[in-house]
Design brief:
201 residues; 6-stranded mixed beta sheet; 5-stranded mixed beta sheet; Fumarylacetoacetase-like_C; hydrolase activity; metal-binding; Fumarylacetoacetase_C_sf
Length: 201
Amino acid sequence: MKIICIGRNYSEHAKELGNAIPDKPVIFMKPDTAVLKGNDFYIPEFSNDVHYELEIVVKISKGGKYIQKETAHKHYEEIGLGIDFTARDLQSDLKSKGLPWELAKGFDGSAVVGNFFKKENYNLESLNFSLLKNKDKVQNGDSKDMIFTIDDIIAFVSQYFTLRVGDLIFTGTPEGVGKVSENDILEAYLEEEKVLDIRIM
C-alpha cells in the first residue's frame, strides 16, 4: 500500500507557508508504517514544531497506469479524512539545504487515516471538511478550492506510479495549519459528521 500525498493544493495554504502556487501537483510519499495505530499521536523526540494538516483522502479501488482524467472516477469508490502530521522545523531545515523532506513527513504515526465512506453520498465538487483543536475550529476546507481535483491528481500520479487497490492519496490541506502540543485534542468533521478524534501525547 502506497500513501501518495499532494502538497500545496490549496492556494491560501501555499501562501501561508510562503510557497509558490504550483502549475503541476507537488508529490511526496509516506511509507505504510506512517499510518497511526489507534487514536493517540505521540510527538516525536526529533521535533519541537509538529503541525496538523487535515486532508481529504481517497482510497484506490481499481488499479491502473496512465489513467485518463475522464475515467479517473472509476478508480475510487470511497473517500475519507486524514491528518498529515509534519515536523515543520525539520522540514524547513531540509528544504533550506535542498534536501528531500521525507524525514519530516513520513515518520511513524504521521498519517492519520479515518474511516472511508461511499463517494456517491457526497458532492465531491464542493465537499466541506473541518478540524477543531481543543474545540476551536482551526481549519475549514472545501474541495471546490482545490487547485487540482481528485481526478486531476489520479491522472497525473498514474503517469509516474502504477496505482494499486488499497493505495491512499492525501489530496492536500487548506489554510490554517498549526502546531500541536501535548494534551491537545483534534476532531475532524466531514460535512457535519465527526470522523476523527485524536489525542496528542
